[in-house]
Amino acid sequence: MSCKSCSSGGGKPNGCRTNGTCSTSGCNKLEVYDWLANIDLPGGQQPYDILEVRFKNSRKEFFRNAEKLNIQVGDIVVVNASSGVDVGLVSIVGELARIQVSKKTKDFKPLESRKIVRIANQKDIDLWIKARSQEKELMYKARTLAINLGLQMKISDVEYQGDMSKATFYYTAEGRVDFRQLIKDMAGEFRMRIEMKQIGSRQESARLGGIGSCGRELCCSTWLTDFRSVSTSAARYQQLSLNPQKLAGQCGKLKCCLNFELDAYLEGLKNFPKTETRLKTQKGDAYHVKTDVFKHTMWYAYRGENELYPLKPERVKEIIEANKTGEKPSDLKDYQIREEVIEEVVGYSNVVGQDSVNRFEKSFKKGKNKNQRRKKKPTQSK
């Protein structure tokens, strides 16, 4: 089966026209590749009856296939909810679902989990599409009600339940918000059950999506599921300037990608000496300026001078050991890295003279000489 917006199951797409590869709350959001799909189970073993169902954006839950329905990845199913039923898309089945259950949940009890009611029919899908199409208008009305009450909160997203009997509003706020009156107003206005959920800035960016400074879609909205804390020390270890405009993402927090290469930097910095140690020479004390982990180079400079001296960490350790014994080198120039200048010889020959700027001047001069001779001939005959 397929959704109306991008027709991932085949056919002519009606919405984004990307044939199932959209990422704005579409078919490819936090997709999982089932690498165990083609593996046959041992004889007599029953397939795992717990399935993972994905709802709007990144919300996923596990349900039990108690009726032993023939459900495949991509099918739209109707599942039990806290009140009524909900509609979602099956994202994982089989043994990979067993791995996800053990990884994502603790003390999971299959018999107490909610059940899959049926595979969605056309009536369920039409109601589901209608609910999704009305979510944006519902969010704008809720924002208006919140502004009229003077609440310091931002309603960033809303999610209808599949049977349109309940709506969940996701909001961000700096502190605690008393929204009891807001719930009463929305229940009277929309005639349905209302649920409010407060989320953080990172979760808001994950739900809304967007394009990062790298030119790709946000990691939190495509594949990143756990949001680890990012500190400014991660930027210091990577020798990055502490500029909040460059280090902050669309959520206003430090970028999650600062943690991606942090382990490699920490492993490489183990072979470097401490940067707080001064190098004592006869010329004066040298201070550490910067470090390049990949080039395996440290730069030092004297106070009041602009010249930098590149040193290998081994040479820096030699100077530190010499300072401990009371010895002082004469200058850091004796220990700095010598850059070898290699002259590259371009091996080509000018065969037809195409690199000459004045290669056409000879032909022009020949033409001028012929014209001059023609003009002189009648004067000579006279």
What this model shows, in words?
The protein is an alpha+beta fold and 382 residues long. Among the domains are: 50-120, no CATH class; 273-334. Helices cover 29% and strands 17% of the residues. It has 11 helices and 12 strands. The chain has helices at residues 95-104, 122-133, 135-148, 180-190, 201-208, 219-222, 232-237, 244-247, 262-268, 313-324, 361-381; strands at 50-54, 60-64, 76-80, 85-92, 116-119, 154-160, 166-172, 193-198, 279-280, 285-292, 297-302, 309-311. The strands form 3 sheets. The chain has a 5-stranded antiparallel β-sheet. Strand 9 (279-280) and strand 10 form a beta hairpin. The longest helix has 21 residues, at 361-381. It is elongated, with a radius of gyration of 35 Å.
